[in-house]
Amino acid sequence: MTRVLVPEQIAGAVPWLGARVQRLRGESMGTTWQVLWADGDAARHDEVRAAIEAELDLVVAQMSTWLPTSDLERFNAAPAGTRRALPEALAEVLAAALWLADASSGAFNPAAGALVNLWGFGPAPRYTDPGFAPPDAAAVQAALAGTDWRALRFDAATREATQPGGLRLDFSAIAKGHAVDRVARRLGELGIAHTLVEVGGELLGQGLRPDGMPWWVDLETPPVGSGHARPRATRVALHGLSVATSGDYRRAYLHGGWRLPHSLDPRTGQPVAHGLASVSVLHAECLWADAWSTALTVAGREAGVALAEAHGIAALFVQREPDGCLTETLTSAMERLAG
Ligand code: ADP
Ligand code: MG
Fold first, then answer.
1. Least buried of 126, 179, 203, 212, by fewest C-beta within 10 Å?
2. Domain annotation covers residue 46
3. What's the Rg (C-alpha) of the chain?
4. How many domains are contained in the chain?
């Protein structure tokens, strides 16, 4: 039977009679985005698209590792000792990322950019390039040396950050979530209260659908080998709620018989390999859902559940057992949403 996750309170006005689901889609941040909202007709599509694109463009201009002129890449390329006042959004995400790096003892690490690039998950060379080979131990050790997030001096009050030298920030595990939050907030400012925002699989729902139902979303279930039971389907009511899922079955590559997922353990320098098929996190803010799903994936099931419990995080872990079957673990905050 489908597991249904619903927030404790469903409140607020219902969309007016005659409202219908409006939809816009596009591409940004190397992925696709989609926004649904309740409105009478398509009259505001141009205005809404412009607002969405402005927010996504801002995140790209500040936080992309694909754009050499982004504020993030300019910080990454700056010589040791360079002090910079960061733009507001970048500073906000950096503060959150540094907090989670401390809280997760480095399982989530925004300063892991050198490692991300080395394993082919940065702009170039990509793991998909012909002839790409995973790095050897010496290269990993060399890259690890530049990944200490505590070496970065950051003053949240003045938004000034100091490049310690060779440190490469990578916000790919948190920026999409932040982009979702920004888009939803901007739509709220335009008077659009009933909306479902998605960027690259990270989602945030606010208000209700025109039919008075919450924005229902089905969590993607990891693939399972033949002969094994599929994990239980899970449906979430995204009412003032975000969901993000990290999974080993997307964007992973096979090398020498090993599956190398794009979540890296910055403490060892290696791709994570402890059998988590996916971790889904529900949170009021998409930035946190996005970042926590990576943090918990890297931590692994046992340490990840403990970490999520300590911070009251609603998470669903799907573990690939040695015999090939999938087992699920829900944290207590997630159990509460399941009723
Ligand atoms: P997922 O949907 O699987 O969470 P994301 O795209 O949100 O994937 O994040 C994966 C990206 O995050 C990687 O491509 C890499 O750039 C970055 N990353 C990988 N490992 C870590 C880590 N331990 N801490 C922070 N960022 C990471
Ligand atoms: Mg993520």
1. 212
2. no
3. 20
4. 1
